[in-house]
Design a protein that fits this description.
Strands 16, 17, 22, 23, 24, 25, 26, 27, 28 and 29 form a 10-stranded mixed beta sheet that branches. This protein has a 9-stranded mixed beta sheet with strand order 14-36-35-34-15-30-33-32-31, sandwiched between helices. Helix 8 packs across helix 10, helix 19 runs parallel beside helix 29 and helix 29 packs antiparallel against helix 31. A hairpin with a 2-residue loop joins strand 16 and strand 17. The protein is built from 38 helices and 38 strands. The longest helix is centred in the C-terminal third of the chain and has 38 residues. Among the domains are: 132 residues, Distorted Sandwich (Calcium-transporting ATPase, cytoplasmic transduction domain A); 182 residues, Rossmann fold (3-Layer(aba) Sandwich), CATH 3.40.50; 240 residues, Calcium-transporting ATPase, cytoplasmic domain N; 192 residues, no CATH class. InterPro entries: ATPase_P-typ_cyto_dom_N (IPR023299), ATPase_P-typ_P_site (IPR018303), ATPase_P-typ_TM_dom_sf (IPR023298), ATPase_P-typ_transduc_dom_A_sf (IPR008250), ATPase_P-type_domA (IPR059000), HAD-like_sf (IPR036412), HAD_sf (IPR023214), P-type_ATPase_IV (IPR006539). It is a multi-pass membrane protein. Component of a P4-ATPase flippase complex which consists of a catalytic alpha subunit ATP11A and an accessory beta subunit TMEM30A. Keywords: ATP-binding, Cell membrane, Endoplasmic reticulum, Endosome, Lipid transport, Magnesium, Membrane, Metal-binding, Nucleotide-binding, Phosphoprotein, Translocase, Transmembrane, Transmembrane helix, Transport.
């Protein structure tokens, strides 16, 4: 009985939700066939189906879930409370005034999110319903992908994508291999080889595969793409046979079958348990600096609102303390309400005042911002300059929430390979025993040009030189995982290996390997194919050599090398090994190490990627020992990777060095120009790469990240071996601080020419030591802070030998520093995904390493050069537009609600509204919303060409300068001033009133009917015209759309007011606005007063701008003035140096607290003796012309000593 309970407990634990993870392995029945009786009993587990779900909502939970998420936002929740208060208590305004804008915002947001989720559902359905072929009862049948189950045997054809994670049983190839691209998973677009189970690879028909009787034991699903441990038990006639399964047998969902006609495989992980699904990283919600500023302003205005309500409540009860003053009759309070406790009455009045003044919080601002971001993102997508014709790809916007953040970037973290470089490898040279060989020029025993100056190279080859040379060439033709693709046609041209002999080309998981094999072809040794476990080579004499491939010791990033064991036609066995110099040299026991090392270092300095090649002959006894070590490690279910690593370590030793290779990865087009522009814009660029230091440093010099006068500081393992990390850090710190001791930290970002330009190089091992949380030496201090201080003083930083996780750690470290700078990460491969997700803005490059980075990024661009326009133009515009939008919204709501506050002093604090309900409701929705939305979409304060040509303008908007508290206070004070002018201007207009003969109140000075609604309508009319014209004055870029929307909004307001007050509407219980607007406009003085009040409201802001532009113009304002003076032709022919303000003018950021700073990093210094004029979009030439504006000494004519030079696309000014 106890046994039964034990079995029951096991079943419950395995089947109950949440308990399956407790089981550390799973057993899969191939073809759902039970194991034969007498074998170990297996309890069949429950597995999910193959359905992929990336959507957020369902039809049933959309409304409650979406409402919950929307009301988590402070502004929405606040307006919901206000709306409920209006429903519950007697408030001065209708619930419609709060409910309608809130309903509008919630509805628009819900529609947007629902549409986006519908697209996700649509994409999921397309994937889940795609047909797959499954073997059942000896036949291939079709079924939908979502109906696939664990244990099903799947039939996949060439170029089809694997529907789930599969174990390869057999393939159309005789050797049981298949070739796969995993670009959608790990970003690697090259082909990888996978192997079928040895005992099942001969089963090639449906009936044969259906006859397989086996079970698979493997680990439970986990996200590591490169790790898999399992075992297959095959039940033959005799005892069951167990074979090991590893990652080389596992075909992952999302990968594509290539160069193989078909395969049969069994499903082991399905649906959301596949490795691809487990790698779906839930992106954390990134919030821009502008959104944080908006929330801070919102809190300030909420405090102002509460203060207003408290003040009015207190003043109301002070007013009513006089026995002669009671609650106004028109509030219609009942006796029971009058007799309530004073605390309850005061609290009710406080809530009523809150409702009355709540429009100071702009709920519609959020929906306007959402629309601006969503619609504005299309300008990036539509930009033809960011279209790559070669790839046929445009820029992609994956999230529009961070558009304005592109204008605030302070740090750019970039990958090297495939981002700065093309990831298009070309074989340059190889060095064998000190002799250099170049493709197509056979240099047997001759030293090539460029190596002649190296004294350690022995130019007289020994008697065995030719033999070692050919052994080196054979090693490179054999030590790889390259496959040969037969009869491939590209653009109608067949790609061939050996002219007249074959129509094939090479494919591999590494572009370096293809370059090396093609390089060997140029040196006379051609790799032909791998057939029946035999590799075939065509030598110089056009003879085919066959080598039996015995073992492949695959490459991994820890060992940084790979090896093959082969047997030649004479029966001799060799181990050929190639890898990084740091992985090969310590394992070498003979060979010309110093000569080869010198050549490797020389090539690394030139920016070439280097690999070393070595070999080891194996005796039969040694080979048997190798086989024993490998088979023992491969069969282990526990710690298989660790045991394999130990076995590889034992095998790859006592090597004989043959030589080294050099491969070039070319710099991307305009990469250097882009980095130089980012530097001028005040952005610090860091390169994070896995390459060796010398290669990466050479790329940094080529891309102008480092200049020849840059002082390089090294924080590397080599240096920390000579000194302690503590001493190295403090030495570097003293070096940089000695130079910058008198400068503020903000000056460091200016990359001033007055100080030494520092560049830092750090490697992964040293970074790990710096990032270690607990230092062994208690007196060592905080290494992170010292490291950050050094980095802040460097214009550029190179991090080499970086693991993907370390890239993210670097970004996180900078994000968390005291300044909290805005960071951007850009990369093209799966190894860049972690830093792309970590940075404030992540950009993926559509390179040759797949689409993993693109899918996980916020934005995707075809080439690195497009980053320049994305930041300097689009980012600049987005930030300018949205900062104006935010400030303007708060300004117009202060103008709107402050007269309501003042009105309470003249109506006994009775909560009487100043404006009609229709005006309260439509002010933010209709009358003033479209002009600012359009402004925030198409405004261009400076011509686009100028922004591209003068990157220093980017500094004008750095550090959220347009949303500083000083600017916010200015806009708020301006709103209060305008509100006072509107209210008291209208008040004094109605100051003298008399009764007419029929009892109506009329103003003596305007002969106009007087009433509270007439007064409110006059104030509201001035308000709408003032805030709309204020925006018109701020607009620099006028189009017909601006005119249509701005003047159309004003006409709509007038027409609406005429209709609203001119018709008796049957659905209204009372119509207090009847004939009010027409009556007001029938008075001539009212027209005059409206014009005067609008002028008085706008005048101070206009005067202030004129004075500031005349006395303290910013660089931006100088260029605006020049552009107007020369009618938009500034970008054609411009003396930009003369437009930049001198240091004497102080800081352009007025009110930011740095006005006295003479050495302002955000100003460009004028040149004293030479002015560089830029003639854009012209060929380079020298010309003479009269300067358009002025020279740096203020004169309008050239004097002796000035040089004029036309320039190319960009000239330093």
């Amino acid at each position: 009985m106890g046994m039964d309970f034990s079995t029951l407990r096991t079943l419950i634990s395995r089947y109950c939700a949440g308990e399956e993870n407790w089981v550390d392995s799973r057993t899969v029945y191939i073809g759902h066939k039970e194991p034969p009786p007498g074998t170990e009993a297996f309890i069949q587990q429950r597995f999910p189906d193959n359905r992929i779900v990336s959507s957020k909502y369902t039809f049933w939970n959309f409304i409650p879930k979406n409402m919950f998420e929307q009301f988590r936002r402070v502004a929405n929740f606040y307006f919901l409370i206000i709306f409920l208060v209006q429903l519950i208590i007697d408030t001065p305004t209708s619930p419609v005034t709060s409910g309608l804008p809130l309903f509008f915002v919630i509805t628009v947001t819900a529609i947007k999110q629902g549409y986006e989720d519908w697209l996700r559902h649509k994409a999921d359905n397309a994937v889940n319903k795609c047909p797959v072929h499954v073997v059942q009862h000896g036949k291939v049948i079709r079924k939908q992908s979502r109906k696939l189950r664990v244990g099903d045997v799947v039939f996949v054809k060439e170029d089809e994508t694997f529907p789930c994670d599969l174990i390869l049983l057999s393939s159309s190839r005789d050797d049981g291999t298949c070739y796969v691209t995993t670009a959608s998973l790990d970003g690697e677009s090259s082909h990888k080889t996978y192997y079928a189970v040895q005992d099942t690879k001969a089963y090639r028909t449906e009936k044969e595969v259906d006859s397989i009787h086996a079970t698979i034991e493997c680990e439970q699903p986990q996200p590591d793409l490169y790790k898999f441990v399992g075992r297959i038990n095959i039940y033959m006639d005799s005892d069951p046979v167990a074979r090991p399964l590893g990652s080389e047998n596992l075909l992952l969902r999302g990968a594509t079958l290539k160069n193989t006609e078909y395969i049969y495989a069994v499903a082991i992980y399905t649906g959301m348990e596949t490795k691809m699904a487990l790698n779906y990283q839930s992106k954390c919600q990134k919030r821009s600096a502008v959104e944080k500023s908006m929330n801070a302003y919102l809190v300030v205005y909420l405090c102002i609102l509460i203060s207003k309500a408290i003040i009015n409540t207190a003043l109301k009860y002070m007013w009513q303390a006089d026995p002669n003053r009671d609650e106004p009759w028109y509030n219609q309070r009942t006796e029971s309400e009058r007799q309530r406790h004073i605390v309850i009455r005061a609290f009710t009045d406080f809530l009523a005042f809150m409702v009355l003044f709540n429009y100071i919080i702009p709920v519609s601002m959020y929906v306007t911002v959402e629309m601006q971001k969503f619609l504005g993102s299309y300008f990036i997508v539509w930009d033809d300059e960011m279209l790559d014709e070669e790839l046929g790809e445009r820029a992609v916007v994956n999230t529009s929430d961070l558009n304005e953040e592109l204008g605030q970037v302070e740090y750019v973290f970039t990958d090297k390979t495939g981002t700065l470089t093309e990831n298009n490898m070309e074989f340059i040279e190889c060095c064998v025993d000190g002799h250099v060989y170049v493709p197509n020029i056979i240099c047997n025993g001759q030293v090539m040009t460029g190596a002649g100056g190296m004294d350690m190279i022995d130019s007289s080859p020994g008697p065995d030189a030719r033999e070692r040379e050919e052994l080196f060439f054979r090693a490179l033709c054999l030590c790889h995982t390259v496959q040969v693709k037969e009869e491939e046609t590209v653009d109608g041209i067949k790609q061939g290996i050996h002219q007249g002999k074959s129509t094939s080309f090479y494919i591999s998981s590494s572009p370096d390997e293809v370059a090396l094999v093609e390089g060997m072809k140029g040196l006379g040794f051609t790799y032909l194919r791998l057939k029946d476990s035999h590799m075939e080579i065509l030598n110089r004499e056009d003879e085919v050599e066959r080598f039996e491939l015995l073992e492949v010791l695959t490459f991994d990033s820890v060992r940084r090398r790979m090896s093959v064991i082969v047997r030649d036609s004479r029966g001799e066995r060799y181990l050929f090994c190639k890898g990084a110099d740091s992985a090969i040299f310590p394992r070498v026991i003979s060979g010309k190490v110093e000569q080869v090392r010198a050549r490797v270092e020389h090539n690394a300095v030139e920016g070439l990627r280097t690999l070393c090649v070595a070999y080891r002959p194996l005796s039969p006894e040694q080979y048997q020992e190798v086989c024993h070590q490998l088979s023992g490690a491969k069969l282990a279910l526990q710690d298989r990777d660790k045991r394999l690593a130990e076995a590889y370590d034992q095998i790859e030793k006592d090597l004989i060095l043959l030589g080294a290779t050099a491969v070039e990865d070319r710099l991307q087009e305009k990469a250097a120009d882009t980095i130089e522009s980012l530097h001028k814009a005040g952005i610090k660029v860091w390169v994070l790469t896995g390459d060796k230091m010398e290669t990466a440093a050479a790329t940094c010099y080529a891309s102008k990240l480092f200049h020849r006068n840059t002082q390089i500081l090294e924080l590397t393992t080599k240096r920390t071996e000579e000194q302690s990390l503590h001493d190295v850090l403090f030495d570097l710190s003293r070096t940089v601080l000695r130079q910058h001791g008198t400068m503020t930290r903000d000056n460091f970002s200016s990359l001033s020419g007055d100080c030494t330009d520092f560049g830092l190089i750090i490697d992964g091992a040293t970074l790990s030591a710096v990032m270690r949380p607990d230092q062994e030496d208690s007196n060592s201090g905080n290494y992170k802070e010292i490291f950050l201080e050094i980095c802040r003083n460097c214009s550029a930083v190179l991090c080499c030998r970086m693991a993907p996780l370390q890239k993210a750690q670097i970004v996180k470290l900078i994000k968390a520093s005291k300044e909290h700078p805005i960071t951007l990460a850009i990369g093209d491969g799966a190894n860049d995904v972690s830093m792309i997700l970590e940075a404030h803005v992540g950009i993926g490059i559509m390179g040759k390493e797949g689409r993993q980075a693109v899918r996980n990024s916020d934005y995707a661009i075809p080439k690195f050069k497009h980053l320049k326009k994305m930041l300097l133009v689009h980012g600049h515009y987005y930030y300018i537009r949205i900062s104006e939008l935010v400030q303007y919204f708060f300004y117009k709501n202060v103008c709107f609600i402050f007269p309501q506050f003042l009105y309470q002093f003249f109506c006994g604090f009775s909560q009487q509204p100043l404006y009609d309900t229709a005006y309260l409701t439509l002010y933010n929705i209709s009358f003033t919303s479209l002009p600012i939305l359009l402004y925030s979409l198409i405004e261009q304060h400076i011509n686009m060409d100028i922004l591209k040509k003068d990157p220093t303008l980017y500094r004008d908007i750095a550090k959220n300068s347009l949303l500083q508290w000083s600017t916010f206070i200015y806009w708020t004070v301006l709103g209060v001033y305008d509100a006072i002018v509107m209210f008291f201007g209208a008040y004094f207009l109605f100051d003298n009133t008399t009764f007419t003969s029929n009892g109506q109140l009329m103003t003596t000075n305007t002969q106009m009917m007087f009433g509270n609604w007439t007064f409110g309508t006059l104030v509201f009319t001035v308000l709408v015209f003032t805030v709309t014209l204020k925006l018109a004055l701020d607009t620099h870029y006028w189009t017909w759309i601006n005119h249509f929307v701005i003047w159309g909004s004003l006409i709509f307001f007038v027409v609406f007011s005429l209709l609203w007050g001119g018709i008796i509407w049957p659905f209204l219980n009372y119509q207090r606005m009847y004939y009010v607007f027409m009556q007001m406009l029938s008075s001539g003085p009212a027209w005059l007063s409206i014009i005067l009040l609008i002028t008085a409201s706008l005048l101070p802001d206009v005067v202030k701008k004129v004075i500031w532009r005349a006395l303290w113009p910013t660089t931006t304002e100088r260029i605006q003035s020049a552009d107007k003076l020369y009618k938009g032709q500034l970008s054609e022919f411009t003396p930009l140096a003369s437009l930049h303000a001198s240091s004497k003018t102080g800081n352009y950021r007025r009110g930011s607290g740095n006005q006295g700073n003479a050495q302002n990093p955000r100003r460009s210094e004028p040149l004293n003796t030479k002015v560089m004029f830029t003639r854009w979009q012209r060929t380079q030439d020298y010309c003479t012309f009269t300067p358009l504006l002025r020279f740096t000494d203020g004169s309008r004519y050239p004097r002796r000593g000035h040089a004029y030079s036309g320039a190319g696309p960009e000239t330093a000014v």
